[in-house]
Amino acid sequence: MNVIVQPPREIRPGSLLTPPIVVRLEGHRAQNANDVVNVNDANIWALASVVSADGMVALAPPQTNLLSGTLVDSVHTASTDDGRRGMGYMTFPNLVINQAGNYRIRVSLVRMPTIEDPEAVNVHSIVTRVIRVDSRASAPSLGPEERDVLASLKERGVVKSC
User: Rounded distance, CA 101 to CA 135, Å?
Assistant: First the structure.
């Protein structure tokens, strides 16, 4: 699991994180050998949260007003540019951090409870680069690499707009 489109390095409080965060999941990767991930598993969901700049302290939750937008996504399967299957993508196109500070977004891959296994399991987590949220931040812009990645994902139906 890796972040293939990072959030902007800086943004104003209350502004949309542009470009949207995109995480790629390659089949059968997990922190624990017992937690093999199938990208087609309907019980696998990605959850976005805010953590401190060092990635160690969960901030939202528990704070309910720090991060807004769609915080949950399912795994969307698609082939890669070279035709490989078994790739999954999670996108977070409308996240907003509402308070100034330095943060990271943590994306956690969670296997949701089932009748056979009634407990949710955090299969894997990854954090983005640090985002400086400041009222004096300049407007974010897409670099050529981010633009290319987003255009490719849009062609495959993974993201709706870029």
Answer: 10
Q: Which residue has the tokens 């943060």?
A: 103
Residue 79 pLDDT class (50, 70, 90 cuts): low
The model's pTM:
0.82
SS (H, E, C) the chain: CEEEECCCCEECCCCECCCCEEEEEECCCCCCCCCCCCCCCCCEEEEEEEEECCCCCEEECCCCCCEECCCEEECEEECCCCCCCCEEEEEECCCEECCCEEEEEEEEEEECCCCCCCCCEEEEEEECCCEEECCCCCCCCCCHHHHHHHHHHHHCCCCCCC
